[in-house]
Design brief:
Length: 462
């Protein structure tokens, strides 16, 4: 039996940051990872791969230069899956190398194998080859992540049917595809593949896509997707999937409609990877989607066992997972740490990008909070002209009473970077005046903040 102060199950964003934080507090720490390489879903099938694929597509198709050189502009004709995977493999190898070095530098032991609870302090780890080893942890963090939901009756054994993990293993770029699920993952892949001129049909049971977004931005994204030929089938649900002999896959909808394509991607929800953990031996009961309930310090119902990342559910972002791991490690060893703010930025890496923080117009209206809107079009900035931007909007919501920033919503190039300016001002209780009175580098897209603020100022002053 090997003893550790802190055992971490899973090496994704939450697990890594928790392990490093505990090690910096002088604790003996080990990460148990069932895969051959560290990084978890975030690095190998989720966040990093999808964003790398997006960058490769935008570069190789010449998408981000078409505003200057026309819609027919292509950097590379006859794009292949090998072209895309080359960049992906380079990125993943570098990322895992950096992570391994960080863990090694901080004295964190990495143990390859699949962990399960024997009791609330003891883990059994099945090593590659089948050897079993025991580990005792004074404190334990569960950060095993999630996997895609696979609906029953869908022929996932077919090469024409994949989930959001399997999409990276396709052999060639399809001419047509169906995406089931209009959440963040489904929308990202729909826009990425449509940028490669793939005929995409997106199916979702809800009336609107991404209904947590500011409605104006969501509508703008839908407009761009439709403009690129994406067919939206909203308020529709899949009844069954049929594979045809000629290599086509047919989705039969509950409404009686049929949609056929070369490939179908299911991106309709995720479930916690907790089946193999034997959580009942530790006194923990997951919910119906195998997620673990935690308190504000990320403690489970067993006080010395913590959980973080996708396995605890919303918001299931790599960025928030990192903070969850850090806070959990601090709390476990009596180190004070700020609780995670309820205001954090969302980033959607569609084409174009979307990012937001704070409240939407719909929320402010429902809460009866008076507000004013400042709006700027990215194409109207000098930097936008230089870059050839055709789309993009930056929207700031201000209080009508004290001019404080209540929310920032951005669609367009660099949205996930630009959002942090608004985040800082909002969380520091900044007002409209900050953007008006301060100097921004010129020419930059960040200048859109000043343009939007001046727009709001004109509205507030009639």
């Amino acid at each position: 039996m090997q003893n550790y102060d802190f055992l971490v199950i899973g090496s994704g964003p939450a697990g890594q940051k928790a392990a490093v934080q505990a090690a910096k507090l002088g604790k003996r720490v080990a990460i148990i990872e069932r895969q051959a390489e560290i990084g978890g879903v975030s690095v190998h099938t989720g966040t990093i791969p999808s964003k790398t694929l997006r960058e490769a597509v935008l570069y190789l198709t010449g998408w981000d230069q078409r505003g200057l050189y026309g819609r027919s502009y292509r950097l590379k004709e006859n794009l292949t899956i090998e072209d895309l995977m080359q960049r992906l493999h380079i990125t993943l190898n570098h990322e895992t190398e950096v992570m391994s070095h960080q863990l090694s530098r901080n004295g964190v032991t990495v143990i390859q194998g699949e962990a399960s609870f024997i009791d609330e302090h003891t883990l059994q780890v099945e090593r590659p080859g089948g050897k079993l080893e025991g580990f005792h942890g004074e404190k334990i963090l569960i950060a095993v992540g999630s996997r895609p939901v696979r609906p029953e009756g869908v022929p996932f054994e077919s090469e024409s049917v994949v989930d959001s993990d399997g999409i990276l293993d396709i052999k060639e770029i399809p001419k047509s595809m169906i995406i089931v699920g209009g959440g963040v993952i489904g929308v990202e892949y729909a826009s990425i593949f449509s940028a490669m001129d793939v005929k995409v049909t997106l199916i979702d049971g809800r009336e609107r896509l991404l209904d947590f977004l500011d409605r104006e931005l969501a509508d703008e994204l839908v407009h761009h997707m439709r403009d690129r030929g994406v067919m939206l089938r909203l308020s529709e649900n899949i009844d069954r999937v049929e594979e045809k002999e000629e290599g086509k896959i047919v989705a039969h909808l509950e409404s009686g409609k049929q949609v056929s394509a070369e490939l179908i991607l299911f991106a309709a929800g995720r479930i916690g990877c907790t089946y193999a953990l034997n959580l009942h031996n530790a006194g923990i009961e997951p919910d119906s989607r195998r997620r673990i309930k935690v308190n504000e310090f990320f403690q489970t119902e067993v006080p010395h066992i913590y959980a973080g990342g996708d396995v605890i559910g919303f918001p299931s972002l790599a960025s928030t997972s990192m903070e969850q791991g850090r806070i959990a490690a601090c709390h476990a060893f009596g180190k004070s740490a700020c609780q995670q703010s309820s205001d954090f930025p969302f980033g959607i890496y569609a084409v174009p990008e979307i990012s937001m923080i704070g409240r939407t117009e719909q929320q402010l209206t429902k809460e009866q909070i008076p507000y004013e809107v400042g709006l700027a079009r990215l194409r109207e900035t000098a930097r936008g002209q230089i870059m050839g931007l055709e789309d993009g909007v930056l929207k700031i919501l201000f209080s009508s009473e004290d001019r404080r920033v209540l929310g920032v919503h951005i669609l367009g190039e660099g949205a996930t970077e630009l959002i942090h300016i608004g985040q800082a001002v909002m969380l520091l209780s900044g007002t409209l005046d900050y953007f008006i009175e301060n100097v921004f580098n010129y020419p930059t897209l960040a200048e859109a903040y000043k343009v939007a603020a001046l727009d709001a100022y004109n509205r507030l002053n009639g």
